[in-house]
Amino acid sequence: MRAVIAFVAILVVGGVLYSFLGDGDDIAPPSNDSEIGQERQPNQPERATANRENVTPAPSADDDPKASQPNDDESPPNVIEAPPVDITVVLDVRNVVTRSPIEAFRWRFVRRGDILRGESAESVAMLGLPRAVVGNLLVEAEGMQPFSLLAFVTPTANEPQKHIDVFLTPRPTGQGITLMVKDLDRQPIPHVRVDAFKLDVTNKESGWDLGQPIWARRTDAEDGVYQLPSLPPGDYGIVLVATDEEGNPLALASYRQTFTLNGSNGFLEDVPLEPACALTLDLFDGSNAPFDPKVHGKTSISLNQIGQVGIQRKWTAKADKSGTVSQANAVAGKGSVWLDQPVAPGTYLLEIFVNNDPRVSSTLVLRPEQQTEILYIR
Hints:
Blueprint: H1 2-22, E1 89-95, E2 105-111, E3 114-120, E4 124-127, E5 134-140, E6 147-153, E7 162-168, E8 176-183, E9 191-198, E10 215-220, E11 225-227, E12 234-242, E13 255-261, E14 266-273, E15 278-284, H2 293-296, E16 299-305, E17 314-318, E18 324-328, E19 336-339, E20 346-354, E21 357-366, E22 370-376
């Protein structure tokens, strides 16, 4: 009987437990691939756990290449920009004859044994030279004579960049003498007079331009480039004077140079003419008539800057019939005479002697222009 009662009691308790458990939530046992108490296996995708919200995770940089790209509104981390090059000198390189740009050239800057160099494929080059230093600047191009700027000082820290116009002269390839004549603004001189002198042991050192030229001629060239007539081998002196259309000297300094020709060499010269005084003297005698040295006798004239003595100059006058006549240190004709070669501006002492008797002593201030002075010789 006791056994029956115990069996019935077990059945009742079991039913109650079954009823209670049947009304609750099912709890699944942890599976073998759960993160709880286990390491994730390699190459196994991460799974959401039971207590995680069902939200798709943001892709990592490894999963999505775009994730590694910075946002437009954010600066990329750990990026250092290179400082800008400090441009201190700008070179503008051109052909002195054609004034066209030279597209390819080399440059070199030497200072205290250090050399900076570079090449340019354009006519304008930006150079990042050190500031406030002194050095020699050299520019070279194929077929051109080199250009050098000695003791060039680069801009200081407070100065703007320096712009340098570089004009390169083509290397001579033919024979003879070619002169490219311009003023300091690089404007061509369209009218010139050229005198050629033969040099020898008697005049080679000095005074050759005071003698008689082997030829003298006026010529014109709108571009200012003058090819001189052929000369046989030898030593020569060349004087060039800028003139107006009538052949009167302009207020520009003359060009004087010597050349040695051997029959196969050539010279191409860049000739910049500086401002000067083209002086003319209107001379009158005691009766207010134009002064005539043939009437009054040998008349000598000297013109020296204050503090100088013995400078010889050639004076020119109109000839009796036509043309002109020139003499060194003398009044060459009647009335007006002018300097054969313009002189530098400044203060000068003018002295005139008639038959070695001093007649005029006057201080003249000569200006860089065509200047005329009226003098009376009594």
